[in-house]
């Protein structure tokens, strides 16, 4: 089974075009001011319109309030909203009702015990994303290049297609897919030359490596 990729934190036409040309199944806009990949909803709507119908548009949020979630829904009109903070399952249902969008819930992983949350979240999310738990003291919940032991996912089954994320690059995504069995992969910092600066060649290489895994 071929895995599919999400290229996240896109902020420029060149990077988005590289993701689309390479066959990315999902493209992500990070709406979180603390992130070096932050993009305002209006800017995101203008940029990502070219992706509509070609890839699923994902708005990545971190503990966003109703006002921001509603703004994203009305202006960007994403297919999916990624909850990458400490959101509860009840909050996920509220976001779904406010936006009509599907839900991706990111869960931080370091050990086997961290997967306990997956059972609770499965009825509330269209996709789970298993991301590396960020280093202590980090004020970002993801996108810092941290990784976890992908073998922790080996043999696990979930009711919906799920993502593996955290520290993925063109050089290691094939190994990550083989070790974890992930049907979906997510990358952001692993296709950048500097925080927030995507590289079209790295995006193309990542997508090719995903297809070849």
Describe the model.
- The protein is α/β, with parallel strands linked by helices and 213 residues long.
- It contains seven helices and ten strands.
- An eight-stranded parallel barrel has the order 1-2-3-4-5-6-7-8, surrounded by four helices. The chain has a two-stranded antiparallel sheet with strand order 9-10.
- Helix 1 runs parallel beside helix 7 (200-212).
Which short descriptors sum up this protein?
single chain; eight-stranded parallel β-barrel; two-stranded antiparallel sheet; about 20% strand
Q: How would you briefly describe this protein structure?
A:
This protein is an alpha/beta fold and 213 residues long. It is built from seven helices and ten strands. The chain has helices at 13-21, 41-48, 66-75, 89-99, 116-121, 173-180, 200-212; strands spanning 4-7, 26-30, 56-61, 80-83, 102-109, 127-132, 163-164, 184-187, 192-194, 197-198.
């Amino acid at each position: 089974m071929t895995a599919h990729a999400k290229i996240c934190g896109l902020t420029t036409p060149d990077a988005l075009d590289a993701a689309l040309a390479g066959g990315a199944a999902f493209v992500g806009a990070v709406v979180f001011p603390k992130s070096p990949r932050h993009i305002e909803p209006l800017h995101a709507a203008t940029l990502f319109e070219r992706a509509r119908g070609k890839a699923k548009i994902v708005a990545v949020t971190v503990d966003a309030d109703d006002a921001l979630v509603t703004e994203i829904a009305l202006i960007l009109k994403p297919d999916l909203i990624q909850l990458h903070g400490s959101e509860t399952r009840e909050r996920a249902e509220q976001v779904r009702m406010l936006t009509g969008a599907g839900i991706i819930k990111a869960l931080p992983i370091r050990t086997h015990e961290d997967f306990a949350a997956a059972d609770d979240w499965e009825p509330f999310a269209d996709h789970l994303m298993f991301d590396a738990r960020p280093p202590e003291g980090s004020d970002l919940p993801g996108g810092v290049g941290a990784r976890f032991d992908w073998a922790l996912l080996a043999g696990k089954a979930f009711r919906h297609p799920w993502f593996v994320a955290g520290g993925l690059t063109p050089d290691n995504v094939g190994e990550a897919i083989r070790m974890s069995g992930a049907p979906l992969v997510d990358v952001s910092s692993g296709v950048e030359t500097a925080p927030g600066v995507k590289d079209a060649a790295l995006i193309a290489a990542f997508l090719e490596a995903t297809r070849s895994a």
